Amino acid sequence: MRERRLRSDAIPRHVAIIMDGNGRWAEKRGLSRNEGHHAGLESVRDVVRSAHELGVKILTLYAFSQENWNRPKGEVDALMTLLDRYIDSEVDEIDRNGVQVRVMGRMEDVPRAIRDKLEAAVERTRENEEMILVFALSYGGRQEIVDAARQLVAAAEAGKVHADAVDEKTFASCLYQPDLPDPDLLIRTGAEWRVSNFLLWQIAYSEIHVTDRMWPDFRKPDLVEAIADYQQRERRFGLTSAQVRTGDLEDA
Ligand code: FPP
Predict the structure, then answer these.
(1) pTM of the prediction?
(2) Using CA atoms, how far apart are residues 67 and 142, in angstroms rounded to an integer?
(3) 62 CB within 6 A, ligand 1
């Protein structure tokens, strides 16, 4: 098995994925874009299972961006229906496997019925501790930062926060999922080298893996490949190699 290539002591704790390429996958096969999204659902199922099996503790999936609301209505509706279907068909297994579901984004824009269903899944799985599965939905990184700034300004207006007291930690505490650590590994499928407004604050020091694989073809071996690539990286967080190796911040 290709998993043997992985060092079990260096599995990224938090993996975030930009699931791109459904449309191109479909167009190449003479199918509709919506059929591409439908095929992509199978990859979501596989990757959630696989991440859990590999020992990933947090998996964040970019399911629908703020900008995706501007796609043709038929495509938006199809994506919402798929999400609905995913929750219906997977929530039992997700819960059985001890996976906790969360959502992040401007949920007020999501159709009521789907929002209710997602909230029920979040509630049902709240105590689960095996893995956290976050759906970034109606999500934008800039919007998240704006929402955090709004919270801080409101707190300042109420006299609860002073400008001097605002640092990275207080700012991060106003983001959508403040208790989650930043992603260690960001994967983007579909051969595009873009961040596309995803987790702009949180990916400051994430390792990035871009693959040519279109999302509907992405499966466990591809996730293993991405993690193997991650395990080759030296994470320096702005330090020098020598400092990282020795742990001595004085070392040149
Ligand atoms: C990008 O492909 C993908 C999306 C906009 C949505 C991702 C949705 C799924 C994988 C389907 C189901 C998801 C869940 C969470 C149930 P694209 O359409 O931008 O592809 P393209 O770049 O080839 O056009």
Answers:
(1) 0.95
(2) 11
(3) no
- Confidence category of residue 247, pLDDT binned at 50, 70, 90: confident
Residue 216 CB–ligand 1 contact under 6 Å: no
Quick: pLDDT tens for 63-99: 999 999 999 999 999 999 999 999 999 999 999 999 9
Cβ pair 215, 205 in contact under 8 A: no
- Picking from 111, 25, 124, 38, the residue whose alpha carbon sits closest to that of residue 78 is 38
DSSP for residue 182: P
CA distance 160 to 140: 27
* 141-155 tens-digit pLDDT: 999 999 999 999 999
Residue 156 pLDDT class (50, 70, 90 cuts) = very high
- CA-closest residue to ligand 1 atom 1: 20
Q: Taking the domain 10-140+183-232, which CATH number applies?
A: 3.40.1180.10
- Among protein residues, the one with the nearest Cα to ligand 1's atom 7 is 63
The token pair at 38 is 């439908």
Q: 124: Cβ below 6 Å to ligand 1?
A: no
86-94: long-range contacts (C-beta < 8 A, 24 or more apart)? 86/41, 86/44, 86/45, 87/114, 87/117, 87/118, 87/121, 88/117, 90/45, 90/48, 91/121, 91/124, 91/125, 94/48, 94/121, 94/125, 94/133
Domain range summary for the chain, segments of one domain joined by +: 10-140+183-232
Q: What percentage of the chain carries pLDDT values higher than 70?
A: 98
The rounded distance, in Å, linking the Cα atoms of 117 and 112 is 9
